[in-house]
Write a structure and sequence with these properties.
Order of helices and strands of chain B: HHHHHHHH
Oligomer: heterodimer
Distance between the termini of chain A: 60 Å
Number of helices of chain A: 3
Distance between the termini of chain B: 65 Å
Largest interface: A-B, 48 and 54 residues
CATH superfamily of the largest domain in chain B: Cytochrome c oxidase, subunit III, four-helix bundle
Radius of gyration of chain A: 18 Å
Strand content of chain B: under 5%
CATH architecture of the largest domain in chain B: Up-down Bundle
Helix content of chain B: over 70%
Largest sheet of chain A: none
Order of helices and strands of chain A: HHH
CATH class of the largest domain in chain B: Mainly Alpha
Number of domains of chain A: 2
Chain lengths: ~100, ~250
């Protein structure tokens, strides 16, 4: 089982603190006027937090099974297709 | 651990000594404990993949309407209490920590830490739902629940100083609240299911069925809990933090 628990307890605490800091940071960033970049900053922070959870808390980083990484990458890919094709439609409707 | 290929060849001979030969948690259709564990977590990741697409459709709807009715989304978002949203984010992040501690404890036979972490996870899960209930109650009081009694009249759209005043169109704001209730409601449903899973995990942990050799339920239950946490990590800024600067 040791390969599944390669992360030590101190790593977990560091990631936990990073996630809490990210939460404070995203609230702080929302109160600054960045124009259209507010949403981009919020989504970037959220994605970094999600990555930390997936890599360290869900143990994807130390996973012996490469198949798991393939599942995650294809999930992100299909989510991207869903959002990108929908926006390609709705975003260009005013062109006609 | 015995060799699986021998099982296949010797069949009946093996079955006589079966129980004693290996961990009773190893099911017949798996060759090794490692294969069994990898299959379980692979199945869970596939399930979470379908969950991402499930929530993805809602995020897509959110994206389309936010771009279309940006002003109303900002005005409606500002009626939410971001302090409560931030507290709930912190609550879920803390629960994710207790979940990894529980997984670690199960792998290292730390019974007290395992039971303590599971109980803490459940308390944090209920705390999240409690705060959510307070927020929902406020929505009902303010008539911000989509339906015949929905009211969102004379609410100004947040604009930069110097811009002409504009009032939010209630029927557009109603779309925001519909998405708010569907997305947070679906998330809360996942939390309730998660709490059910963790009550069961607490039960089998109490019975001593989670060991360093076999703790798959704890591991994949943890994966589910972390996924629900990730959904909230996105919901919080998207629903609570639109245009707060104005």
């Amino acid at each position: 089982m040791s390969e599944h628990s390669s992360s030590s307890l101190s790593t977990y605490v560091v990631i936990w603190l990073a996630l809490l800091a990210g939460t404070v940071l995203t609230v702080f960033a929302a109160h600054i006027n960045l124009g259209p970049f507010n949403a981009a900053v919020a989504l970037t922070i959220a994605t970094v937090k999600a990555l930390l959870v997936v890599l360290f808390f869900m143990h994807l980083r130390g996973a012996s099974e490469k198949l798991l990484k393939l599942v995650v990458i294809s999930t992100v890919f299909f989510l991207f297709i869903l959002l990108a094709l929908a926006m390609a439609d709705y975003g260009t409707r005013t062109w006609s | 651990m015995h060799d699986s290929s021998t099982t296949a060849v010797q069949g009946n001979v093996q079955s006589e000594v079966h129980g004693a030969a290996h961990n009773p948690a190893l099911l017949h259709h798996f060759a090794t404990e490692e294969q069994q564990r990898d299959s379980a977590s692979f199945g869970m990741w596939i399930f979470l993949s379908t969950e991402v697409m499930f929530f993805g459709g809602l995020f897509c709807a959110y994206l389309i309407y936010r771009l279309k009715y940006f002003g109303e989304f900002a005005a409606a978002s500002q009626t939410l209490n971001w302090q409560l949203g931030m507290t709930n984010t912190a609550v879920l992040i803390c629960s994710s920590l207790t979940v990894v501690l529980a997984v670690w404890a199960a792998q290292h036979s730390k019974r007290a830490l395992l039971l303590g972490s599971l109980v803490l996870t459940l308390i944090l899960g209920f705390a999240f739902l409690g705060i959510k209930a307070v927020e929902y109650a406020e929505k009902f009081e303010k008539h911000h629940v989509p339906g015949p009694s929905f009211q969102f009249d004379h609410v100004k759209i947040p604009t930069a100083p110097g811009q002409p005043e504009q009032f939010a169109n209630p029927s557009h704001a109603q779309i925001y609240f519909a998405l708010y209730f569907i997305m947070t409601g679906l998330h809360a449903l996942h939390m309730i299911i998660g709490i059910g899973i963790f009550v069961w995990l607490l039960f089998i942990a109490w019975k001593g069925r989670l060991t360093p050799e076999y703790n798959t339920p704890m591991e994949i239950g943890g994966l589910y809990w972390h996924f629900v946490d990730i959904v909230w990590i996105y919901l919080f800024p998207l629903l609570y933090l639109i245009d707060l600067r104005k």
